[in-house]
């Protein structure tokens, strides 16, 4: 702000108390996380998948593309299902006989979902064998063990209480408050991990957690988690971002 | 690189969406439409990000898009007078109904007064007084010379203060407004 800039009305003696009140309330008028998450959902791949990336659209990371398919993927009970393949799974679920559970919901007419499952749907991204997020559709769903949602079940059930925020909502909330309140963002990510131990958004939340730690000045811990991330999720497209956050080349 | 672009838009959304929302509200977008307009802003951000040359800060650039989006919105709606007073009480963090109402009333009052300004003055006022950009950034966002921005701010402040005072005296004359504070 230059020297020529006048003092702002909110702190100026020129403004009436009423005007100051109004300005203060206006500044405090911010959307809640649910609203932001809903907007992010509609933006779809713009805040998530690669725009115009063709096959890559299904395979890229990002908040809203994941947000759009996360509920579907979660309902499929995909343990540790990376969002990268969730979109593909959502579309292929019908093709893989018998496991198409909530196809109607997967195909729910949300812009984000339709766009996130592009015309190259059957592409199962190449995943290395040691990639923990590889999801093998041939595995019996029961192998999801403690996963809350058995795959073939016609009616998905959830372990978290009915009034718990969805995994998507928690991630969106963490992301939206990251800049202003990294401690709370970190806590929200912990909540997500606790409520959804086999949730689909573990990677994305971990990126947020690492970012929050850096913002809090806890660089050693951030670095440790960044290293662990690169081990746990080798080959993940989030790795460049993680490295950027902790200042690695 | 398409993937980098979209990842950046995700970052930009996380950082700026709340303020885009707030700015659009005060720039005259009705509560029922603001979510859609936030979406529209970020669609534009996404589309134009490759063109962004970094001459201004990204924040300033995004606010510029907000101003133009709000202006387009108002031109389309062409029901300027009806929009603002219709706003339902906003969901606020306060559980105290009285506080919530007072907050809503204060904002509604300001929105009404801002609605009386022309787009240029309103934009400068909102960006400076509420979004708290510096005036150089404000001028950049609204794409006018710095001196023009100062003039608009000066005029806007005068009109806003007069408008608030008038609304307040109207309320008091009509029997309400004691809860809003501010002596005459």
Share of helical residues of chain A: 40-55%
Shape of chain A: globular
Give helix and strand order of chain A, one letter per element, not per position: HHHHHHHHHHHH
Order of helices and strands of chain B: HHHHHHHH
Task: Please outline the major beta sheet of chain B.
Answer: none
- Mean residue pLDDT of chain A: 65
Strand content of chain B: under 5%
Number of strands of chain B: 0
Radius of gyration of chain A: 21 Å
What does this structure look like?
The complex is a heterodimer of chains A (249) and B (184). Chain A has helices at 17-28, 33-43, 56-59, 63-75, 83-95, 103-106, 111-116, 167-177, 182-195, 202-215, 219-232, 239-245. Chain A has 249 residues and is mainly α. Chain A is globular and about 60 Å long. The relative contact order of chain A is 0.12. Chain B has 184 residues and is mainly α. Chain B contains 8 helices and no strands. Chain B has helices at residues 2-26, 31-48, 58-77, 80-83, 97-115, 119-130, 135-142, 146-174. The longest helix of chain B has 29 residues, at 146-174. The chains are: A mainly alpha (249), B mainly alpha (184).
